[in-house]
Amino acid sequence: VKTSSLQAALVEGVLRGEPRAIARAISVVEDGSMDAAPLLGALYARTGRGLIVGVTGPPGAGKSTLVDRMAARLRKQGRTVGIVAVDPTSPFTGGAILGDRVRMQAHALDPGVFIRSMATRGHLGGLAATTGRVLTVLDAAGKEVILVETVGVGQDEVEVVGIADVSVVVLVPGLGDEIQALKAGIMEIADVFVVNKADREGVDRVVAEIESMLSLVPAEGRRPAIVTTVACEDRGVAELIDAIEAFRDEAHRSGLLVRRRRAQAGALLQRELESRLASFVRARVLTAEETEGIIDRLVGRETDPLTAVEDVVGRLGLA
Ligand SMILES: Nc1nc2c(ncn2[C@@H]2O[C@H](COP(=O)(O)OP(=O)(O)O)[C@@H](O)[C@H]2O)c(=O)[nH]1
Ligand SMILES: [Mg+2]
Fold first, then answer.
1. Which of 21-30's residues contact partners 24+ apart within 8 Å by CB, and which partners?
2. Rounded CA gap, 149 and 151, in Å?
3. Does 61 sit in the ligand 1 pocket, CB within 6 Å?
């Protein structure tokens, strides 16, 4: 794909880590316009250096506070940081993003930190695809650690886990049954557990519950660490960063990191391929009326989904 001179300047700005260029590039890749492909094409080769850390857990667990404290510590160590906060609330109605913005303002004047909030709704091609593109920009911009905050309640954040090198699951005392509900999805994806709000009653119980659940799940190599924190008082944050790095180092040694990134690249290819083929079919093969007609016939039980898809594929002349 050809890159215009305007885009070449944008690419240069991103590679130099200029905040304005990064912001502009993220807008381009997020809105999915024609300019996105050449831009991502130019940036992709420069990625793979940053450590991508997913931070997930229920709303109110203290994820944003933790991310903010981790960013502050990483900056003190001289490392550059990217923050992507994926929030399920709309930026127009939700208070959460605004709250995060205010909290994150401590970093606002620091060019070594780039913060981006994303709403989960209204993204073409799915949240994970869009988040992946934003991560490409931040990684190419040289951010050494990229923290991705997602709310662990639905499908989206599990998808997002598919783009992180290390997944941190944040729990708090007093979750009760919620911890059971979380077990199925989130328990298996955690590389590091955080029990935040350790200033509250019941920390030991949560830790014990996590330990007993972990004893049931067959671990691939290393057992996830469990770190207790009081994010709002900056306690346990250094230990959390240590645990993340210990996991990263071990995953690097064992080959898990390479396998994980390879699996993620495969999933990304698959997703982009499906999305591209689907939009090709919509644009060139199947009109909206024809689609409605097929749906009518499905509803009337005159055809079935697999036969309908085979017909469409047949029209592509590929089958
Ligand atoms: N008591 C206590 N409150 C905390 C702690 N960490 C964060 N909070 C508070 O919990 C609330 C939710 O935090 P936030 O970071 O927005 O949670 P998120 O929804 O997971 O991002 C805020 O009022 C924080 O100040 C902690 O360790 N202890
Ligand atoms: Mg938050």
1. 21/141, 22/114, 22/137, 22/138, 22/141, 23/114, 25/137, 26/116, 26/134, 26/137, 29/130, 29/133, 29/134, 29/136, 29/137, 30/118, 30/123, 30/130, 30/133, 30/134
2. 7
3. yes
Which two structure tokens, joined as six digits, stand for 296? 């009518």
List the residue whose alpha carbon is closest to atom 1 of ligand 1.
Answer: 197
Q: Is 207 in the pocket of ligand 1 (CB under 6 A)?
A: no
Q: Distance between CA 107 and CA 104 in Å, rounded?
A: 6
SS3 60: coil
Q: How far apart are CA 86 and CA 117, in angstroms?
A: 6
What six digits make up the tokens of 286? Answer: 């199947």
pTM for the structure as a whole? 0.86
With a 6 Å cutoff on the Cβ, whether 62 touches ligand 1 is yes
Question: Cα(first)–Cα(last) distance of the chain, in Å?
Answer: 28
Rounded to an integer, what is the distance from CA 244 to the centroid of its chain? Answer: 16
Quick count: other Cβ atoms within 10 Å of Cβ 65?
21
Taking the CA of 62 as reference, the closest ligand is 1
Whether residue 234 has its Cβ less than 6 Å from ligand 1: no
CA proximity to 3, closest of 47, 28, 40: 40
Mean per-residue pLDDT, 155-162: 60
Assigned token pair, 22: 């990064």
Write the CB contacts of 257 (distance below 8 Å, at least 6 apart in sequence).
Answer: 165, 248, 251
Average pLDDT over residues 72-92: 81
Q: Dump pLDDT digits (tens) for 165-212.
A: 999 999 999 876 666 656 566 667 889 999 999 999 999 998 988 888
